[in-house]
Amino acid sequence: MFRLGRAKINDYVIRKTDKGGSKWLSAVSECQCKIVMNITGVFLREKSSNGFWVNSNKVGKDNMWPLEHNSEICFLGSNKKVFVFMLREATSGKGGQRGG
């Protein structure tokens, strides 16, 4: 599990420089989302009430969305890209094979 949000306990702490200023940072939750992996793949689980988007698809609170190589993750609107998910296997030169 990998957590993203404003709180210092997260694996990645979202800073105002990530969002372009303090105005946007205030809308990011202490724990915005979690990236989880299980036997079927890698998923983003919504933990905030403000929402996030994966490839322009809004994900609701406590819902999960599958992540694929180059998935765009946006907070606060479908056009406010924060992260691009990259599968390590897809960039390692192993012909795009996906591992566990």
Q: Can you tag this structure with a few keywords?
A:
38% strand; mainly beta; disordered C terminus; 5-stranded mixed β-sheet; 2 helices; 9 strands; 4-stranded antiparallel β-sheet; 100 residues; 8% helix
Topology (SSEs and partners):
Elements lengths: L1 E4 L6 E2 L2 H4 L2 H4 L7 E6 L2 E6 L5 E3 L2 E3 L4 E4 L3 E5 L5 E5 L15
Describe this structure in words.
- This protein is mainly beta.
- The protein contains 2 helices and 9 strands, in the order E-E-H-H-E-E-E-E-E-E-E.
- The protein has a 5-stranded mixed beta sheet with strand order 2-1-3-4-7, with no helix packed on it.
- A hairpin with a 5-residue loop joins strand 8 (71-75) and strand 9.
- The longest helix is centred in the N-terminal third of the chain and has 4 residues, at 16-19.
- It is globular.
- The model is unreliable at 91-100 (pLDDT under 50).
Give, in spatial order, the strands making up the sheet with the most strands. 2-1-3-4-7
Shape: globular
Largest sheet: 5 strands, mixed
Continuous helix count:
2
**Helix share of residues?**
under 10%
Average predicted confidence as pLDDT: 79
Residue ranges: pLDDT <50 for 5 or more in a row? 91-100
The fraction of residues in strands falls at 35-45%
CA radius of gyration: 14 Å
- Termini gap: 14 Å
Give the number of DSSP strands. 9
Give me a quick take on this structure.
With about 100 residues, the chain is mainly beta. It has two helices and nine strands, in the order ββααβββββββ.
